[in-house]
Write a structure and sequence with these properties.
The structure is a single chain. The chain has 119 residues and is α+β, with helices and mostly antiparallel strands. It has one domain. Strand 1 and strand 2 form a beta hairpin. Helix 1 packs across helix 2. This is DUF4845 domain-containing protein.
């Protein structure tokens, strides 16, 4: 007797595959919009750390940050946005800002960034 057992079908259906592709595409687009803001945030953190180390007064720290800002493609923060606090060890420099990323229509993604040189 030749009996054939029907093989059980397994895998992804066409609609399932399309759904997975749409989700991956949406995540990729979202990632492409978020990554530049994260890169800018890391540039801001480096710039405020360098400005704190090179400046001896609040004005010098702001000027140093402004120089690094123009060289580092930093657009979200200016030297006037820095919060500079004098401490016993020198200065603590911090900045807090909000980045709004438009998504679709009225929907947008808001990311709050806080960078500080506090110890």
């Amino acid at each position: 007797m030749n009996t054939r057992l029907a093989a059980k079908a397994s895998g992804l259906s066409l609609t399932g595959f399309l759904f997975v592709i749409v989700v991956v595409a949406l995540l990729a687009v979202l990632g492409l919009k978020i990554v530049p803001t994260v890169v800018e945030y890391s540039a801001i953190k480096k710039a405020i750390a360098n400005a704190r180390n090179t400046g001896t007064t609040a004005r010098e720290i702001q000027d140093s940050f402004e120089k690094q800002r123009s060289a580092g493609y930093i657009e979200s923060v200016t030297g006037k946005d820095l919060e500079i606090i004098k401490t016993a060890e020198g200065f603590d420099v911090s900045v807090a800002y909000e980045k709004r990323i438009p998504l679709v229509g009225p929907a947008s993604l808001v990311i709050d960034y806080v960078a500080t040189t506090g110890r």
